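In the laboratory, one determines a bound structure by crystallizing the protein with its ligand and collecting diffraction data. In a computational setting the workflow is compressed into a single prediction: the sequence and the ligand go in, and a structural description comes out. We illustrate the idea with EPZ.
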Amino acid sequence: MEQYAISGGNPLVGEVEIGGAKNAALPILAASLMTDETVLIENMPDVRDTNILLGAMEGIGAHVERIDRHTVKMNAALVHDLYMDGDSLRKIRASYYFLGALLGRFKKATVVLPGGCDIGCRAIDQHIKGFKALGASVQISHGMITASAERLVGSHIYLDIASVGATINILMAAALAEGRTILENAAKEPHVVDLANFLNSMGADIKGAGTDVIRIRGVEKLHRTEYTIIPDQIEAGTFLFAAAATRGDVTVKNVIPKHLESISAKLVEIGCQVWESDDAVRVAASGELGHTYVKTLAYPGFPTDMQPQIVVMLGLSGGTSIVTESIFENRFRYVEELIRMGANIKVEGNTAIIDGVSRYTGASINAPDLRAGAALVIAALAAEGSSVVDDIRYIERGYEDFHLKLQKLGAKIEKVQSERELRKFALKTG
Ligand code: EPZ
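The predicted complex, in C-alpha cell form:
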C-alpha cells in the first residue's frame, strides 16, 4: 500500500503551478457527453476522480483521446449505453453528474448511487426535486438511480439548499429541456460558473451563473467546443496554508486571486504577508501567528474544502481559534489524528475549539478523506520528526503530484510502497 513518508520541520519556499479545478473538471467531463460533436478540454487535472470518470465514459461508448497529460479530446457520438455501474464509479460522488448530462441528451439514464468522501450524509433530494420539476420520473432501486422522461420541460425551481451538485445537475438537464428554467437559490461556486460557461460554449443559453438565480433557455442541440478549465482554488489554498503552517514563503501560480479571497483574508488576519498579482498569490509567514474565527459557508464564504487545512494551520498559531463547519456534519474526523500529533483541539458538535501549540510531533496517521488527508500532510510537514501518512489514495483523488509539488518547495516527502523504502527514506532524511 502506498504511503507518504515525511520528515517535517522545513519551511516551504518557492513557486508552485496550480492545476485545473477538479470540481469543475468532473461536471465538464460529464457534460461532454451532451453533444455528438468533438469536445477538446484543456487544463484537465490528472487525478484519480477525473480518470475514473473518463474510464466510465469510455465504458458507455465515448471516444476519449489524451492529447497530452492535461488535454483531452472526446467524442460521444457513439454512446450506446445509458446504464453506468462499476466499483470505481460507486466510490465517487461526481458519478451523479452523468444523470443530468445523459437525461438532458437522451432523456434517460441509470447511474450507480454516489459514494465519495465520508464527510456527512450527503443527500441528493435536491437533485431529484430538480429532475422531477423538469418532468422526469426518478426511481432508486438496488443502489442505482434512474431518471427518465418523455420530454423535459423548463420549470421554476427553488433549491432548499444551495447545493453545488444539484445546481450543476439541473443546469445540465435544463440546458436541453424545452423552454425556460429559472433556478433559485443556486450555488455560486466558481466551478458552477465554469460548467455554465462550458455549456454556453457548446451553444447552451445559461445566464446568471455565479448569482443565486440562474436562467436557462433550453436549446435543441449542443455542439463542438474547445474549453480551458479554471485553476483549482482548493489546491491553491492548500499550498498557501501549508506555507503558513511551516512558516514558509510560497507563491501559487496560475490562479484566479478573486477565487482565493476568503483564504487570503484569513491569512492576513492571522498575521501573514500576502501579495496578489494578476494570476498569482504569494504568502510569507514567520514567527507566531494569531488566532481567528472561521465558519464554512457557500461561496464566496470560506470553503468547507479548506476547513481541515485551516484547522491544522490554526493549531500552530497563538491563542484560541474557533472553526465552525456549517456545510457537512461529519468533517472533523481527522482531528483525532491531529491530537495524536500534539494538537490541542476539542470538537463540540460542528465546532472545533483550537488552542494553538508551538509544535506538532511526527506520527503514523491515516488520511480519512481527501481534504483532511491533505491537511494531515501539512501537519506532518510542519511537525518535528518523521510521519507516515496512510490511505493516500484519498489525497490522490484530488491532488495531482502532491508530493512532487511539495518536494519542489523543499519538503522532505516521498511516496513509499514498502517497509524497505520507508527505512531508506528514514536513513536519507536522518
Ligand atoms: C461538492 O459536493 C464538492 N464535490 C465537494 O467537494 C464540496 O465540499 C461541496 O460541493 C461543497 O462545496 C464535487 O464537486 C464533486 P453540495 P456536493 O451538494 O455537490 C446537502 C472535495 O473535497 N445536500 O453543495 O456533494 C449535503 O448533504 C469535495 O473536493 C442536501 O441536503 O455538495 C451537504 O450537507 C468533497 N441535499 C450540503 O447540502 C441535496 O440534494 C452541501 O452539498 C444535495 C446536498
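The CA atoms of residues 208 and 214 lie 5 Å apart. Keep in mind that any predicted model is a hypothesis to be tested, not a measurement.
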